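sry for the spam today, last one i promise. struct tokens for design, 143 residues
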């Protein structure tokens, strides 16, 4: 069941561009709670609102329209279709919708793999230097 605060937060997000934490504060959620929007977006009430106002079939329909939307330019008194996609509008609209539906997968950075590789490289270099030091002839004092 959808709560009044969930409805208020949903309305704020829809009207003010998607800042969920800010919308939650305006809807009456505690500051601490607003810093963890997943507490709202994972709730059954929020999912119910998403399905009611942003159903998957509507998203798919809008997605197709946006993907096919083309840029228009004004030349004199005429509006001309360039045939080029209006990429900013397409990207922003889709990103927001997928985030709200919790279907957006942000870019992942593979730090762990890179660090492991760097560690191996460092170990090899240390071993190489140790061997090189061991293999060096001892310096003797010249008399």
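last one done:
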């Amino acid at each position: 069941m959808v709560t009044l605060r969930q409805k208020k937060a949903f309305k704020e997000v829809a009207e003010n561009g998607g800042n969920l934490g800010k919308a939650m504060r305006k809807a009456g959620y505690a500051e601490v709670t607003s810093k963890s929007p997943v507490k709202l977006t994972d709730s059954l009430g929020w999912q119910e609102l998403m399905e009611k106002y942003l159903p998957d079939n509507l998203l798919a329909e809008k997605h197709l329209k946006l993907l096919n939307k083309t840029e228009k330019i004004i030349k004199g008194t005429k509006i001309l279709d360039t045939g080029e996609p209006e990429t900013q509008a397409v990207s922003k609209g889709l990103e927001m919708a997928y985030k709200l539906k919790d279907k957006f997968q942000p870019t992942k950075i593979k730090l762990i793999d890179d660090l492991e590789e760097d560690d191996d490289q460092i170990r090899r270099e240390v071993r190489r230097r140790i061997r090189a030091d061991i293999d060096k002839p001892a310096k003797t004092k010249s008399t």
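The longest strand covers residues 78-85. ok im logging off now
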